[in-house]
Structure formats: structure tokens, C-alpha cells
Design a protein that fits this description.
The complex is a heterotrimer of chains A (303), B (291) and C (555). Chain B is an all-alpha fold. Chain B contains 14 helices and no strands. In chain B, helix 1 crosses helix 14 and helix 4 crosses helix 8. With 555 residues, chain C is of the alpha+beta class. Chain C is built from 20 helices and twelve strands. The chains are: A mainly alpha (303), B mainly alpha (291), C alpha+beta (555).
């Protein structure tokens, strides 16, 4: 090999050393157990083990691919994820920018701290709050509507047209503060002299935001967006499970609740693993594709 | 105070009001949680508690903490949290630095190697079997090693490092700095805010971790706080309801305990955040208020 | 060395150490992948060694491990407490016990089964099918011969109970089941008798209309309080208080009955439609709460405590719990009793017997198993026997005289506070053969202490009445029938559909004609899938079931 490659090799070695703990750990705890994926092609019985269970090929994939319920929940999953993306993903960005615009230091610190508190509430608590506030008999919202506007109580939680919105809104309330932490970290890193220069040039706050703050945030936004896209085919179980009820099933039942119900019928490892595998493959493909598109268009990507 | 346009003033007012409403919407339920945890069992059960405890009692917390195992679990949790956080941050930084280095041969395959693990997983049983076969069952290692890699952190760190001005790194290289030196003296200070963010995420995550304790341990002396809490809640729920064995000691309703347990999950962040908040507060913006 | 150089070395060292550590621990164990136990052909038959009576030689001390269901109490070590210590003495063993609570039990037991690392004695709950499956593959031994030679166990488990716990596929007896026959039987409509006294002069309503009238009266007098509610349990949207009207009509949204030899899902019956119409009426009048379809468990408990819920539906343990809770904590003079059957049943009801409920099974699916890898199954069985011995069982439930109970006129009187502190909060988990409900006299004594003798008698009389009616019906269900997988996977959907059209009809969002259409649609989509196999099983096994005491096969 030529000198350049030799130099590169010499320089790479310490890098490999730096990578080695992660590589070895992943090999041990992720790659070795990966044979478990085969379960989706077998009639898995826990005691017989992966090797001892009989091979059934595509049987379980056939089952769910031909189940109309599966397609219904997949549709819901994608739609709700889409709303989550449009509203839930942008909320922390906007929130972070708004907090930056607060000048009273104490107020700012307080807001930041308070905003991430709901992250610690479990969905059990949050769903309880939601049911309480939106209750048609004694919920705050309905009482307010009745007293002020004289409107009949509305069953918010049971209306198909509103329910997805409730799902998304609840998630925003719960996570906007916590998710904004990453954006705060980025904003803090922006060179202050840029703002000074802009101010001297007479740029308004809004212009500063558009031309300085936002561009610095774009790489992080793109990154997080790509990662978010990769999980479009799955969705958090607890939020949906706890907030939904029979009247809104058609619009709110998602793939994770579908899997949960299957899991309740005992010993459905193969079926649930098969669905999980399908989700993984789809998510992976989506990630690779969107990464390519992102690199071609804005020059930013995961790798 | 410098001049601010009328539209600016309006904006600041609206922003402020919005923030106040938002904060209130968070504080009110939280204070309610705190109040329930400090109320007596009947009031908690009957949903009679508003923003102030009804029938003050600290029994829920006493039950949580007055436990003879509590101190030990607390120690375990602190140890595991610090160890895991340190390891995961170090590993992520090291890996990210390596991945962002132009000298790395085979960068793309290595990336795929990492990213695939984000999607594909063998499942609980094979992982459990591996850990057991490595002889790690019922040891601290089982609570540390499997979770020491975070692809998410690595990816984000890598991108942040990519964004750093190349000149800094190049000039240091010319000066003869080795990779380790580059990493710690130059890169780390520049990515400190992001690192602190991840420190917070990790501390909170590991503090609340209980599942690994459930599946990988047998002895009580490996327990962590959250697992202990979970166990305690399971007990109280069971005895308070269906069985014939009536709750002779009704001083603490499961509801009190749940709320008290919830307050303890908030503990680490409340303890840690004040020290790291300076990394997330954008200082006084020039052009608004001088000085 | 400069600081930076030190840092470099430190980080390099850390990387190296981590790597080495991982390598070392990886190599230290035989990395043979998973241990899949070879399913030996013989494991299906009972092992020959235990054919004779288990060895009585207790001279050698043996170490045994046990995994069981239970929730820990602070200050209590599951391996080191009076109960376990006594068992260790009696059997000359060193017992190490691991206890896992309900929420995580299934996860843990599945993992243990998967890894083949089973302790000697395993107490399984909620995971019976998995345990049986594992047993068929060789995880556990057959216990029949041990049972046959053990009068201690036979005291609690009759031969019929062993038969009921038999593996339907192989005929093996994998477990000693938990007895449930002493558990208070009975299930039915529970009413607030104090409200009947206040608003109806203590006269029990005799028909559905009279109950509705009573509800109207109470609601009018207390417009802001809730008088009729429900408890939403996810797939089981209508449960507890929400099912009371349905029960008066002898139906329930999610079950089936046998009529003229045919298995009929309740939703198809005229009784179901009539009951739904009553609910619709109640909703329109505002008697049934507007939020009935989304009431969470917490809200339900709060409503029971705070409001004037006239009707509830629950089993006897629930009734007893509510009564004790009312007497001890609420102290507002309320009284819960099982409501007597309607003297003027609704016209649509085909037969009163459909409102009586069924006799409870004498066992539940908890059980004690012995692992096939145990080094001393004889001694392991002795341990199970020791937990079932009179002395230990007595200790488990009553505790110690003087400490947790005292003798008064030859009767035992429990000291509630002492019991609450120590025993009954943890010890009864060890009663895995006599059953958690193995001391009915204890609960009766406790109730009497709380309610007073007179109120307690009234309560138990209403319970006895329900039990009498239920016994007359024999066992319910079809023991031995297993719902095929295809049907089981659809059952949740079926329930959701039922929930939807029932709730919509109640809320007036669809007309009763549309309700009929929805019912027909449900029938087309689900009835065959879910009930044909059941019908077949019934037809083929009528005689066998009748012998077992399942009387409703002849309805």
C-alpha cells in the first residue's frame, strides 16, 4: 500500500481503540442475541427454545398481513405519527425560541424548570388528569363552557373527530419542556458576537432569530427529524392505551395496542416478534431513504 | 432600557402570559400530586384533595423511606446512576469523535453496524439468556453492561462534533496533539452543553430504571429505589382491594404511596438541574438589556 | 505529567479496561448459547423413582430453592421469617425463597422457564398454560403419586380437585392446585340497604320498574350526587355497577348462556335488548351518569365512597371488603347487602335461574410445581406438605395466641391491628395449597368486629342466599374447553364492537332499530368464529361434564 494509506491506517488505529468498547458491547448484547428474530419464522415455545421450536416460515406474517384490523391500526399509527410530527415535533423548537425571548432571568429559569416537570408524570397520572378535566359531568372545560357560553356538556374523550387531537395535545404538554432541553443546549452554543454584530448592523430581534438562531438549530432539527421519521411505524403504547376508550377505537387504535391485545392471548411470541420485525424493516428502510434525501437536499444527514 | 418597538412589547406580554398559563397548567396538577402524597388515606381515596393536603400525614413517605432496605437501595441507585452515566457519556463521546474523524477507515460500514442495532433486536428472552450465560445474572454487571451504549447520543455527538470549526482541530493536530488530547482538551469543552443535556437525560433514565433489576437479579441487596417502590406499590395495591384480608392498616392508601413514589422520581433532576442549568440558559442577549 | 496527558492516559486506560473486562467475562463462562433442554421422551410419564412413598428420612439437611408469587412487606425477608423458619425446622432444609409480585410475575416466570434455570419448588400463578406447556416439554414432574400418599395435602385437595387440575392434553398432574372451596362464594347485585330504608321504608323493590322508580326518587332528592354509574375496565367497558340492570335480566354483555342445548351469546337475546333500553331510559333521564363510559377505577372508588350509588355488582369478597371499609373508615351508617331476587321478574327473562350465577370452582389456577431438575424432589414435596401442615397453616392465618388473637369464650377473637402489622399482610402467600381464603372463620370474625354482630348476621344471610341459589345451578363454563387461537385473537375486537353499539344505544346516539342492525352485524362477524367450537365441545362431552357437576349443559 502507498504511504497515504499507511498514514491513514496509523491514524485510524487509535480511533478503533476509541470505538472498541462500544463495538464489543454491541456485539455481545445486541448482535449475539439477534438470532431471536428467527422466532418470527418459528412456532416458538419458551421451553423448547429457539432452536427446538418448529419452523413455520411466513405463517405469522400471513396472519397479520391478511388481518384487516392490522391495516386499520397501521393507518391510525401513521396518521397519529404524522400529527405528532407536524405539531409535536415543532412544539419544542418554538417553545425553546420563545423561552429565549424572555429577559427576566428568574422568570426564564423558572419556566425552564417547570416545563420539564410533566415529563416525570406517568401516563397513568396524565390520562387521569385528562379524563378529569374533560369530563362531561364535572370537568373544568365543560363547566367553563356551560357557565360562560351556555353550551351543553361535550364528551370530548369520546368524540372521534377530537380524540386524535387530544392524544397529540397531551403528548405536547407532557414532553415539550423536556424535548426543548436539547435545543437549549444548541442555542447556548451559538457565538454571542454574531448577535452583537447583527445588533450593531440594526437587525431586529426577529431578523436575528431568522438569520442567526434558526440556522444554527437546523442541523439538530434535521437530525432529530430523521430519527423521528425512523419510528413512524411504531407508537408509544401507554399514551394511547390509557387515553382511548371504546367509542374512539376506530381512530385511535394503533399498532402497539394491537400487539398488546395479541400478547394477552397467551404465548404469542412468534406473532408479536413477526410484527416487530416488519416494523423494524420498514423503519430502517425509511431511515436510509430519508437520510439519502436529506443529504442530497440540505447536505445534512445522520451519517 | 433600550428602545423596544410597540410590537415587541406586545409580543413580550403575550409570550409572558402564555408562559404563565402554561406553567400554571403544569404546577397545578403537580401540587395536587404533592398534596395527595401528604394527605390521609381516606381523603386520597375519595378524591377529596385539591391543592392543599387534607389531614396532613407523612406516613406515605415514612413507608417509602423508613424501610430497612431503603438506604441500601438508595446507595445502589446512586452507584449505578453515576457509573452508568459516566460510562455512557464517555463511550458516546469517544465513539462519536472517532466517527467524525476523516481518518477513519471503514466509516460507513461501522455506521451501519451501529444503526442496525437501533432497529433490530433479538428480543427479551435471547438477551436474558445471553446475560445469564455470561455469568452475569444476579450481579451488578448485569445492571451496567447491557445498557452502556446509546446510539442516540453517539449520533448527536457525532453531528455536533462535525459542526465544529475544522481549523481548531487541524491546528491542534499540527501542533502534534494526539487523538485523546484533542478529544478532551478541545472537543469536550466545545460540546459541553450537549454533554450536560445528556448527563441529565442519563441521570434521570438510570435513576428510574427498574426493569433490569426485575429480570436480572434475585437478591434483594441488588435492588434499586425504583424497583423497591414498584414492589411496595404492588403490595399495597393487592392488599387494599380484592382479597378477603382486609386492610387493617389503612393509614396509607395506595394512592398516597403512588403519589409519594412519583415525587421521588422527580428527585434527581431537582437535585441536579440547578447545577447544570447555567449550561442551558442563554445569557443576556445583546441589544435587549445591556450588562 | 501534565493534566492533559494524564487525562489521555486515563481515558485510554478506561477504554482498555472496559474492553478487557468484557472479553474476560465473555470467556469465563461456557458460551454455549442458550441451554435448550432436550425434551426427553420420558418426562411425560411420571418418573419411576417417586412411585413409592417419598422417603421419610430427614436426617440429611438439604438446600432447596423456591420461587413464588407474593408481594413483599417491608421488614420481611421472604426466606427468613417465622413461617419459613418453622418449615425449615420441620423438614430439615435450608430454604431460599424468591418472591415476585403480580405485575411482574409473568415476565419473570417466563424468563425462568426459557432459561431452564428453575428452582426446586415453583409456585405459579396467572401463567398456568405456559407452565403446563413447559411441563409437557419436561420442566416439571408429575405429582400424582406424591399426592396419593399424602394425607396432609388430601385434607385440602380432594380427588375431584386433582382431577380438575389435570392437564387436558396429556393427563398428567403437574401441580398441587390451590384450594378455593372455602373462599366465600357468591356473586350478585349489591344494594345500599340504608338507601332502601331511607327512601323506600326498607321495602325491597320487586321489579325492574320499582328499582328504576327508587333510583328516580333518590336522584330527585340529591340532584348533584351520582346514583348510577359504571366502571370502565378497557375491553370490559361495562362492569361492576354498570351491569346491574343487565343482571336483573339475566344477561351480561360479554358472556353466553346455554338454552335448549344451544350456546347463545347474551347480546343476541331479547333480554339484552330490553336491558339496554332500560339503560337508555336511565341515561336520558340523567339518572345514569353522563360519563359512565369513561369512569376510571379511581373515579369509581371515589364515587362509591362519596355519592349515593344504589346498585353495584360484585363478588362476596368485594361485598365484605366494602362493608368493612364502610364500617371502619366511612362510618356514615351505610349498609351493603346482596339484593334479593326480583319477585316480579321482567317479562323478557326466559328463566329466573339465569340470574342466580354459578357455583364457584373449588380450585384456581395457582399451583405448586416441582422442577424436574430438582436434586431432591422427595424433600421438596415434604416442604410443600410442611407449608400445608395444621401447625403452619394456623400460624399463617391466625398468628400466635396472645400476639395476634385471643381466646374469648372458647372462640378466637382476632386482634386486627396486630394482624395487620405482621401476619396477614405477607404470610398468607405461603398458603399455596389451603388457599388464600383458607380461613373463613378469620374473615367472619373480623367482619363481626367491624360491623357488630347484628349487621354482620344480616350481611352473611344475604351472602348465604346467593350461595344457595348459585349452588343450585352447579358449575358454570365448560371445563376442559380451550378457545382456539383464531377465536382468542379476535375476542378483544368482538368485545369492542359490543361496547360500541351498546354504549351508543344507551347514549341515544343510535336508535334501537340501528341497534338491532348492529347486533346482526356482530352475529355475522363473530358468532361462528367464537362459539361454534364451544357448541361442538358441549355436544360431544355432555355426559362427562354432567358428571363433573356442570349442570347447565342440560339447560
Amino acid at each position: 500500500m502507498n504511504a497515504r494509506t499507511r498514514i491513514k491506517l496509523r491514524k485510524t488505529l487509535p480511533l478503533y481503540l476509541l470505538l472498541s468498547p462500544a463495538v464489543i458491547s454491541l456485539f455481545l448484547f445486541n448482535y449475539i442475541p439477534m438470532y431471536g428474530i428467527i422466532i418470527s419464522f418459528k412456532d416458538y415455545s419458551i421451553y423448547k427454545g429457539v432452536l427446538g421450536s418448529p419452523w413455520v416460515g411466513w405463517k405469522y406474517f400471513d396472519y397479520f398481513l391478511h388481518d384487516p384490523t392490522f391495516w386499520a391500526v397501521m393507518r391510525n399509527t401513521l396518521i397519529i405519527n404524522f400529527y405528532d410530527l407536524v405539531f409535536g415535533f415543532t412544539a419544542p423548537v418554538i417553545f425553546a425560541l420563545l423561552v429565549v425571548e424572555i429577559y427576566q432571568m428568574r422568570f426564564k429559569k423558572a419556566i425552564q424548570t417547570i416545563s420539564y416537570l410533566p415529563h416525570f408524570l406517568s401516563w397513568v397520572v396524565v390520562s387521569g388528569i385528562a379524563y378529569q378535566i374533560l369530563s362531561p359531568t364535572d370537568g373544568l372545560v365543560n363547566l367553563f363552557l356551560q357557565d360562560v357560553f351556555g353550551i351543553e356538556p361535550i364528551h370530548f374523550m369520546m368524540k372521534e373527530s377530537i380524540f386524535r387531537g387530544i392524544l397529540v395535545a397531551a403528548d405536547i404538554w407532557k414532553s415539550v419542556g423536556w424535548s426543548a432541553i436539547l435545543y437549549f443546549a444548541v442555542i447556548v452554543g451559538i457565538d454571542k458576537t454574531l448577535y452583537e454584530a447583527a445588533w450593531i448592523d440594526g437587525a431586529s430581534r426577529v431578523r436575528q432569530l431568522i438569520h442567526i438562531t434558526l440556522p444554527h438549530m437546523v442541523p439538530m432539527i434535521v437530525l432529530l427529524l430523521l430519527l423521528r421519521l425512523a419510528s413512524m411505524f411504531g407508537i408509544g403504547f401507554e399514551r394511547v392505551f390509557l387515553l382511548q376508550n371504546a367509542m374512539v377505537y376506530d381512530v385511535s387504535d394503533v399498532i402497539s395496542t394491537y400487539i398488546y391485545r395479541i400478547g394477552l392471548v397467551k404465548a404469542q411470541y412468534s406473532l408479536t416478534t413477526a410484527i416487530g420485525l416488519a416494523q423494524s424493516v420498514l423503519g430502517f428502510i425509511l431511515l436510509v431513504l430519508s437520510n439519502k434525501i436529506s443529504k442530497k437536499s440540505v447536505g445534512l444527514g445522520l451519517y | 432600557m433600550n428602545y423596544r418597538s410597540p410590537s415587541r412589547i406586545v409580543f413580550e406580554w403575550i409570550n409572558g402570559i402564555f408562559m404563565v398559563i402554561f406553567s400554571a397548567s403544569i404546577l397545578i396538577p403537580f401540587i395536587n400530586v404533592l398534596a395527595i402524597s401528604l394527605s390521609d388515606a381516606q381523603a386520597a381515596r375519595r378524591g377529596l384533595v385539591g391543592l392543599w393536603p387534607v389531614g396532613w400525614q407523612f406516613d406515605a413517605y415514612v413507608q417509602l423511606a423508613g424501610n430497612y432496605r431503603f438506604l441500601h437501595s438508595f446507595g445502589n441507585t446512586i452507584f449505578l446512576t453515576i457509573t452508568n452515566t459516566t460510562l455512557v457519556i464517555l463511550l458516546s463521546l469517544a465513539s462519536a469523535y472517532a466517527l467524525s474523524n476523516k481518518n477513519l477507515l471503514g466509516k460507513t460500514p461501522i455506521f451501519y453496524y451501529f444503526i442496525i442495532t437501533m432497529f433490530f433486536n433479538g428480543g427479551l428472552v435471547p438477551t436474558y439468556l445471553l446475560v445469564t450465560n455470561l455469568g452475569l445474572y444476579n450481579t451488578y454487571w448485569a445492571l451496567i453492561l447491557p445498557s452502556v451504549v446509546s446510539i442516540f447520543y453517539i449520533i448527536i455527538f457525532k453531528n455536533v462534533i462535525d459542526q465544529l470549526p475544522k481549523e481548531l482541530m487541524e491546528s491542534a493536530e499540527i501542533d502534534g496533539a494526539g487523538d485523546f488530547r484533542l478529544l478532551f482538551r478541545i472537543v469536550l469543552p466545545l460540546v459541553l452543553p450537549m454533554t450536560m443535556a445528556f448527563v441529565i437525560f442519563s441521570v434521570v433514565g438510570y435513576w428510574n430504571e427498574w426493569f433490569s433489576v426485575l429480570i436480572y437479579t434475585r437478591d434483594q441487596n441488588l435492588w434499586t429505589i425504583q424497583y423497591q417502590l414498584r414492589d411496595l406499590l404492588a403490595t399495597s395495591e393487592l392488599s387494599a382491594e380484592k382479597t378477603l384480608f382486609l386492610p387493617d392498616q389503612v393509614k396509607v392508601d395506595p394512592k398516597n404511596l403512588k403519589m409519594a413514589a412519583l415525587m421521588t422520581t422527580v428527585l434527581p433532576i431537582v437535585a441536579v438541574y440547578p447545577f447544570v442549568q447555567k449550561y442551558f440558559i442563554h445569557g443576556q442577549l445583546v441589544g435587549a438589556v445591556k450588562g | 505529567m501534565s493534566i492533559s496527558k494524564r487525562k489521555n492516559m486515563a481515558s485510554g486506560l478506561i477504554a482498555l479496561l472496559l474492553t478487557l473486562g468484557l472479553i474476560v467475562s465473555a470467556c469465563s463462562k461456557n458460551n454455549t448459547g442458550e441451554t435448550s433442554p432436550s425434551p426427553s421422551q420420558e418426562s411425560a410419564k411420571p418418573p419411576a423413582s417417586s412411585a413409592a412413598s417419598p422417603s421419610d428420612d430427614l436426617s440429611k439437611k438439604v438446600s432447596l430453592s423456591m420461587f413464588m408469587y407474593g408481594a413483599k412487606v417491608e421488614g420481611m425477608d421472604p426466606s427468613d421469617n417465622p413461617i419459613v423458619n418453622r418449615v425449615e425446622e420441620l423438614t430439615n432444609t435450608d430454604l431460599s425463597v424468591e418472591m415476585v409480585a403480580q405485575a411482574d410475575f409473568e415476565t419473570k416466570i417466563n424468563l425462568m422457564l426459557a432459561s431452564g434455570n428453575l428452582p426446586d419448588i415453583v409456585n405459579v400463578m396467572y401463567a398456568q398454560e405456559q407452565a403446563y406447556e413447559a411441563a409437557r416439554a419436561g420442566a416439571f414432574i408429575d405429582l400424582k403419586s406424591y399426592y396419593d400418599n399424602s394425607p396432609t395435602i388430601q385434607k385440602y385437595i380432594t380427588p375431584e380437585m386433582m382431577e380438575l387440575s389435570k392437564d387436558p392434553v396429556t393427563g398428567n398432574y403437574w401441580r398441587i392446585p390451590m384450594a378455593w372451596d372455602k373462599a366465600p362464594q357468591g356473586y350478585g347485585i349489591i344494594a345500599r340497604y340504608d338507601l332502601v330504608q331511607k327512601y323506600n321504608n326498607g321495602v325491597w323493590p320487586e321489579s325492574v320498574e320499582q328499582w328504576v322508580d327508587l333510583l328516580r326518587v333518590i336522584k330527585q332528592a340529591n340532584p348533584t350526587k351520582s346514583v348510577f354509574t359504571n366502571r370502565n375496565l378497557g375491553d370490559t367497558l361495562l362492569s361492576y355497577a354498570g351491569t346491574t340492570i343487565y343482571q336483573m335480566y339475566g344477561v351480561s354483555p360479554y358472556t353466553w348462556r346455554i338454552m335448549d342445548g344451544k350456546v347463545i351469546p347474551d347480546v343476541l337475546l331479547p333480554e339484552y335488548k330490553a336491558a339496554t333500553q332500560v339503560m337508555r331510559q336511565l341515561y336520558a333521564e340523567g339518572i345514569l351518569d353522563k360519563d359512565f363510559a369513561t369512569v376510571t377505577s379511581d373515579q369509581y372508588y371515589a364515587k362509591l365512597d362519596n355519592d349515593l350509588i344504589l346498585l353495584d355488582a360484585n363478588s362476596t369478597p368485594g361485598l365484605l371488603w366494602n362493608s368493612n371499609h364502610a364500617a371502619k373508615d366511612l362510618k356514615d351508617g351505610r349498609q351493603y347487602l346482596f339484593a334479593p331476587v326480583l319477585k316480579q321478574p321482567p317479562a323478557e327473562l326466559a328463566d329466573m335461574k339465569y340470574t342466580y350465577g354459578f357455583r364457584g370452582y373449588p380450585i384456581i389456577d395457582q399451583g405448586a410445581y416441582i422442577s424436574s431438575k430438582s436434586k431432591d424432589p422427595d424433600r421438596a414435596f415434604k416442604v410443600i406438605e410442611a407449608f400445608t401442615s395444621d401447625e403452619v397453616v394456623d400460624n399463617i392465618f391466625w398468628g400466635e395466641e396472645g400476639k395476634t388473637y385471643k381466646m374469648l369464650d372458647g372462640k378466637r377473637v382476632p386482634d386486627l391491628e396486630a394482624l395487620g402489622k405482621e401476619y396477614t399482610r405477607y404470610s398468607y402467600y405461603y398458603a399455596f395449597v389451603p388457599g388464600y381464603e383458607g380461613a373463613p372463620d378469620l374473615s367472619r370474625a373480623k367482619t363481626e368486629l367491624n360491623l357488630g354482630a347484628e349487621a354482620s348476621k344480616l350481611l352473611y344471610d344475604s351472602v348465604d342466599e346467593r350461595v344457595r341459589l348459585a349452588e343450585g345451578n352447579g358449575f358454570g363454563d365448560l371445563p376442559g374447553f380451550v378457545l382456539p387461537e383464531a377465536a382468542a385473537l379476535k375476542s378483544s375486537e368482538s368485545m369492542q364492537r359490543i361496547n360500541q353499539f351498546t354504549v351508543k344505544a344507551i347514549m341515544g346516539e343510535i336508535s334501537m332499530d340501528q341497534f338491532d342492525q348492529e347486533v346482526s352485524k356482530w352475529e355475522k362477524d363473530f358468532k361462528s368464529l367464537m362459539y361454534d367450537d364451544m357448541q361442538k365441545y358441549l355436544d360431544e362431552n355432555k355426559d362427562k361434564l354432567r358428571e363433573q357437576g356442570v349442570k347447565h349443559v342440560d339447560w
